[in-house]
Amino acid sequence: MKSTTKTKSSRKAAGLTVTGNPAEQFDRWRQQFNPLRGLTIARAVSMFEAAQRGDYSDIQWAYRFIERRDEDLIALIERRVNVITQMDWNVKIVDEKASAKRGITLDDTLAKAQAQVLLAAYNRITNLYEAIEHMSMAAFREFSICQFQAGDQVALPGEATHIECLNQWNIARDGMHGDWYWNQAAKQTTAISLGAENKIDTRFTLIREWPRPLDEIGLLKFIRSNLSRKNWDAFVEIYGIPGWIVIMPQNVPPGKEAEYMAAAQSIAEGRPGALPFGSDAKCADQARGTNPFRDAMQYLSEKLVLAGTGGLLTMLTESGSGTLAGSAHMEAFNIVARGEARKISELFQAQFDAVVLEAAFPGQPKLAYFELAANEEQDVGEILDHAVKIKNAGGQVDWVQLSEKTGYTITAAPQLPTPAPVMPGIGFQLPNRRSPAMVFSLRNTAFSKAVAADLEPIRKRFEAALALPDAEMMAAIEALKGELPELLKEINTDPESAKIMAVELQAALEAGMKAQQGGSK
């Protein structure tokens, strides 16, 4: 939290709630405390009981650690939060059907004015999605609290430019449903002992509660999984590098027991040595039963995932990461996220929108509201139509964003080279450079040589035209264009290429007939 001694007094003078100096100055001791040391089921139950009384310092500090170390919790948090924070937010106007249900008359002018005020209030906030993410974490931590700020002062929602996300371990409560208090030193204490001066004024805060926190399940799962891992490590240590059991022979001579024992111990530890006749050695490489630890850990993971996806069994029945499994998993998180987005939207509507609109339009019905786009199904055709219009207007469309909005996999089309202009009447393209050789570059065959000879008059005219300056060159080409019909008529009177083509066609016909008749003439 942002505060100094100077701003503390100014807050009091303004009649605002003071939540204290930066917590890091007072709860530095907790940063040296690792709650995972000696963490047992009995210790977890004790923290649950303290939290029920409103003392959240220990359990919320433990939640912070397991959220950073438990693989299943990390995956659940990332997937759920990412889906929510990728949603667009909008300020909307109440439709006629909704206003009729609330028994109010829809005033379009008033509704638009309220929407503009709300939009301006949300646009002033520099970290809106950070606050949305913090609110979504209430589903894991039982509650989330943010404070509205303008600079280094607490502020009302309509004046806020920043939403400060408060640490859970710095929060206390008067019982299960009482007032909230700022526990500046993050110490184990009751709300009453913190005093009225540390009571959190809800006018300047955004508070979300959740009755079924996932971190409670995650904490117990973390303890039990660690116990299974510890026993699994011991199992691997025993059977991963198997030991040896040496059976001594009968009738060991008196006084030789220690000598025989030393030899047996050396062999059992893998060192070279010799055993007396009649000795035996057995390898301890087989457990008495199956390895139960993987199954136990998988069971605990399944229960946490089941709770984290709202009981959607597709997360457990669809294995792998292919198309079907991936779609099932993504749909599970989308369903959960849509419900979360709706609840968070209602939270902002009640604790932010209502305050802003009442201040700007006192006594008027609330006709505009904030909403995360959880239930909106965008018209893909409309999105693509807008993209085409932007492109035609000379703008550029971001392919990544367009792919995200439409759900299509979109890649930019390869840029094809611009074709050179084609001269009317002949099948040759003008090159991009002035090179007659490029125009009349043909393969070195009898037919191609004959074509080149037939087109010699035109080639010479092109050479002469391309050698002229730009202005004269275009005039010469236009003149050649007009003379082409007569030139081609002269060429086609007795072209050498036609004679060669006739010979080649006859040879090809004879070869084909010969092949058809099995090689006989």
Q: Could you explain the architecture of this structure?
A:
With 521 residues, this protein is an alpha+beta fold. The chain has helices spanning 5-13, 28-31, 41-52, 57-69, 71-85, 96-101, 108-124, 128-136, 138-141, 191-194, 214-239, 257-268, 293-308, 314-317, 323-360, 380-392, 399-406, 436-439, 446-454, 456-466, 470-491, 496-516, and strands at 89-93, 143-150, 153-154, 162-165, 171-173, 180-182, 205-209, 243-247, 280-284, 368-372. Helix 4 packs across helix 5 (71-85), helix 4 packs across helix 11 (214-239) and helix 5 (71-85) crosses helix 15 (323-360). Mean pLDDT is 78; it is low at 1-22, 321-325 and 421-443.
Characteristic key phrases:
521 residues, alpha+beta, 4-stranded antiparallel beta sheet, two-stranded antiparallel sheet
Summarize the structure.
The protein has 22 helices and ten strands. With 521 residues, the chain is of the alpha+beta class.
Mean pLDDT: 78
Number of strands: 10
Number of helical elements: 22
Unreliable stretches: 1-22, 321-325, 421-443
* Gyration radius over CA: 41 Å
- Which shape, going by the Cα principal axes? flat
Work out the helicity level: 40-55%
Span of the ends, CA to CA:
102 Å
Structural class: alpha+beta
Largest beta-sheet details: 4 strands, antiparallel
Strand residue percentage: 5-15%
